[in-house]
Amino acid sequence: MKQIFLLLSSIIVIGCSSPKVFILDDNEEGKYFVQKLVNTAFEKDLIGKSPLIVINGIPFQYNKEQDTILLPLKKSEIANLDFLNQNSSRIIYNEKENDGAIIITSKVRN
Predict the structure, then answer these.
(1) Fewer C-beta within 10 Å: the chain N or C terminus?
(2) DSSP 3-state of 88
């Protein structure tokens, strides 16, 4: 019984210990640009596992049940990327967004 409990606990901790994978609609070199920054913010406890994504001021809707999220941008289109911690995200966007936010500003397209 104790072994089963330890196994289940380990699975839950491993499953809950990393953020979603956010990839860009880009080639292999730029595809994981955002993910590297997301992992760093997650490790610093700035964001949770399923943060709100805001692109140019508009919340990006994604299925929070999925592990991998495709963002409709290329690395070359990103002008700025910032993170809001859980408290700031709740205040600015609403109370149910409690995993922080990733704020992406893209370059103006000609």
Answers:
(1) C
(2) helix
> Which has the higher per-residue pLDDT, 108 or 2?
108
63: phi then psi, degrees, rounded to nearest 5: -75, 110
Residue with tokens 């491993």: 14
Dihedral, CA of residue 74, residue 77, residue 81 and residue 87, to nearest 10: -80
Mean pLDDT, the chain, integer: 82
Question: Which among 78, 76, 67 is positioned nearest to 102, based on CA atoms?
Answer: 78
- Assigned token pair, 65: 């049940």
Query: Amino acid identity, residue 52?
Result: L
C-alpha 105/C-alpha 98 separation (Å) is 21
Distance CA 43, CA 47 (A): 8
* Token pair recorded at residue 66: 């999925």
Strand 58-60 relative to strand 52-55: parallel, antiparallel, unpaired? antiparallel
